Amino acid sequence: MKNRLRVLRAEREWSQAELAERLRVSRQTINAIETGRYDPSLPLAFVIARVFGKLIEEIFEPENAVK
Amino acid sequence: MANAEFVICRSRGVRHQKESEIDLILLAIGVALFLIAFALFTRASRRGDSSLSLPIALAALAGLALAGWETFRLWRRKDDAALMQAGTLGFISLIGIHEKAPKGSALAFAAALAPLVPAALFAWSTVRLARQADELQRRIAQEALGFGFVVALFAALTGMALEAAGLPRLDWAWMAAVLVAACGVGFLLANRRYR
Hints:
The structure holds 2 protein chains of 2 kinds. Chain A is mainly alpha-helical. Chain A contains 5 helices and 2 strands; from the N terminus they run βαααααβ. Chain A has helices at residues 5-11, 16-23, 27-34, 42-52, 56-59, and strands spanning 2-3, 60-61. A two-stranded antiparallel ribbon of chain A has the order 1-2. Chain B is flat. Helices cover 81% and strands 0% of the residues of chain B. Classes of the chains: A mainly alpha, B mainly alpha. Chain A binds chain B through residues 17, 20-21, 24-29, 31-32, 37-38, 40-41, 44, and chain B through 3, 6-7, 10-11, 13, 134-137, 139, 193-195.
């Protein structure tokens, strides 16, 4: 799954550690999501969307999404 | 404030707090003192040398008290990673002490059961750490345990096959070490994958 986490984080000038603190996860988790090595669970995806004030589908997109 | 502590704890993973280092060192000294005194006590008891028994027993108790006090300090600091390390150290140190006591004696039975105390500490702190872990850390732990279980299973089956083929009888105590080592390797591999 592709995501815009890194871009959104950079827009707000947050470090990975800062975002991890807001989401109550480890920095390793943020890095793994940003690099696409790990797809978050639905509850965590909702929290991420809420922190950035966006919808889940505005942040996450399936690799082979049909447009 | 509680939230901040919680987050700091999460981002730390299984590493102990810096303030706990001195406590872990003192705990190790306490355990070492206890082990040395226990060995001397059993030797003195075998020789019937009662004049040395009391000071040596006091030294053993002092070692235990030091280890217990340092464990209490770690518990008060809520450093579960350090408690896990303390439990591991205690278990490894105490697992063989029953061999020093006379076979069949009450001391030997007490010594054989003694490792259960640090084992319980290890289990308790592991559960607490698992509860604090986020979803990725839980997945890493799950993959590590899965890897460790499969490796230990195949190691056991291979050992049995080798025994059946005529290899001298193996001491199955090594299985625990294989399981722990395999889980450790699994943890490193899973951690590397999600780094």
